[in-house]
Structure formats: structure tokens, C-alpha cells
Amino acid sequence: ADLNQVAADVVEMVSVRAKEQNVTMNSRPDESVPTLLFDPGAMHRAILNVVANAIDACHDLHEGRVEVSTENDRAASLVRVIEDAQVRSFRPSARPRLGGGGLPNYHVCL
Fold first, then answer.
1. Residue 4, CA distances (Å) to 9, 80, 85, 100 in order
2. What does pLDDT average to over the chain?
3. What radius of gyration, in Å, describes the C-alpha atoms of the chain?
4. Structure confidence by residue, pLDDT tens digits, 21-46
5. In what order do the strands lie in the sheet with 86-90?
6. Spatial distance between the Cα atoms of 107 and 59, rounded to a whole number of angstroms
7. CA-to-CA distance for 88 and 59, rounded, in angstroms?
8. What is the pLDDT of residue 96?
9. Nearest to 31 by CA among 67, 70, 82
10. C-alpha to C-alpha distance for 2 and 103, rounded to whole angstroms
């Protein structure tokens, strides 16, 4: 499946809601992400859940920015969701862990 397309679909789906809540949505796909074997429906739901939470968190601040990016490195392909100063990453492990700054990093298998 195409991770960039799944992430783009989520951004498109939430863009009206984000605008209504005074949240700017940005998307940065990495064109080097290969076609991957994963359930696009499950991945869509996982990304949508984190993006919706990020929009809600920004809305609580009365404005904000949410960026959804994809990345490809030697170990894995991932989706990164940044809401203002907080980062949530999806990597191949499907378990939450605390990052170095105490912010949650969420990982999902790819």
C-alpha cells in the first residue's frame, strides 16, 4: 500500500475541521517511501486518531499548526505528526513509549 497516499487522505479528510478550529494543516510526503505491505484501512484509522487528537490539542490553544509527514530511513518508513511543539511518530512496533523529552512517541507497524 502507499503510505504517502494514506497520510494524504487523512490530511484531506480533516482539513475542513482543522480550518474551522483555526488550525493550519501541513503535509510533507517523502517520495522515497516505497510501497509497503500493511492494512491501509487500519493505518488510516491510526493516523486519523492521532491527527484528530493533535487538532483538538491545538484548538484548546485557540490556534495552532499540525504537520503530517512521511519519512523513509534504513530501519523503517514512518508517519510523523507534529502539533506545535509535540511530536508523535509511527514506527514498526505498535507500542507507546516515552521519548527523550518526556513526550509520547506512538509507534505502529509498517
1. 9, 11, 23, 27
2. 79
3. 13
4. 888 999 999 999 999 888 999 999 99
5. 23-28, 64-72, 77-83, 86-90
6. 24
7. 17
8. 43
9. 70
10. 28
Q: Is 79 exposed, middle or buried (0-12, 13-18, 19+ CB in 10 A)?
A: buried
Cα dihedral 19→14→47→54 (10° resolution): 30
pLDDT digits over 84-96, tens only?
745 555 554 444 4
Angstrom distances, CA of residue 56 to CA of 5, 62, 76, 77, 95 = 23, 10, 28, 26, 22
| Torsion angle in degrees (nearest 10) through CA of 71, 77, 82, 87 | -120
Grid cell 491501509 — which residue? Answer: 40
**Residue 84, all three cell numbers:** 506545535
